[in-house]
Amino acid sequence: MKDRRQFLQDSALFGLAFSAFALVNPLFANYTKTFTMPKRKLGNLEVSALGFGLMGLNYHRSIKLSETQAQKIVDKAVELGINFFDTAQVYGPDSNEILAGKILKKYKDKIIIATKFGFGKDISVLDSSPKRIKEVCEQSLKRLNLETIPLFYQHRSDPNTPIEEVASVIKDLMKEGKVQNFGVCELNAQSIKEAHKICPITAVQSEYHLMWRDVEREILPTLESLNIGFVAYSPLNRGYLSGKLNKNTEFDPSNDNRTILPRFTKEALEANYKIIDTINIFRKEELNNKATPAQIALAYLLAKKPYIIPLFGTSKLEHLSENVETLTFSLSKTQVESLESRLEKIEIMGTRYPKSEQDRVGK
After folding, report:
1. Which of 31, 59, 91, 208 is catalytic?
2. What one-character DSSP code corresponds to residue 24?
3. pLDDT (0 to 100) of residue 17
4. Active site residue 233
5. 205 forms bridges with which residues in the sheet?
6. I need a surface site. Which of 77, 116, 126, 193 has the fewest CB within 10 A?
């Protein structure tokens, strides 16, 4: 953490003075020349302090980018120092990995690509059987143009395949050189411990943000005791914590999964806006308005634990720069506690998933 503190001291002279919103701003051009991306560790795997989720470039969001547009996004992400990218076989299915393989091909020797298994050929079915894991591994290697998968997660727990069996298969794939690191997603603490005994887990990926802090109870203490890193997906609650979504926001029902999420009904979007109002009051009183709601949400996670990597996604260059600029400041322990205290008073409308999905994540 000493290096990070020094970085923050040095970079404080730059970041907050620059626009978080427009890459055409000449001040931002100067900022990118002086900025150095800090690193964090997932177990023994060192990655950029922020990860980039590729899913939304062509799957589950209202905007589907062309390959050329997606290339510009990842080019800028790499330029800004992000070296940790995330995809999954089920996104599409397959199409997100195919896109990732194309747009990240020229960077593959200097980045870390994480992907996931855990669904059958019918993506409504969970399948982590040994046969399916090996099959997905081979296919993912081809789609991603890789010789080995840097980080291979189980996407969702399969009730028909014990986690010990899953861990054994991954251990074999690691011995074969096809996988470098094992990860799991949305797994309970006891299952994490059981899997880790058989094949060391590098990272756990689960949802974590200002509107969903359940992992603080059992997951984070477990990871800390086992030296496992944590990747926080949806750190902005699928864009909501940016403050840019409201009851009038329209989502494309043909491709955007937010249309079926209880927290994204018009009623919930309106009722939960108290969260955004509270964050805005916090930024005025504690930060003199020198950070956006999105930056505060990301800075909050970075301040919680040194082994947490927020994994954000975006289809807009200006949002990419805004999110990365978060790393030019930090929240103090007192500020984190103040923010939590303010938000804990607010009752949130809607569960994070519909019941069918809630059952899959056990929450």
Report:
1. 91
2. T
3. 33
4. no
5. 185, 231
6. 193
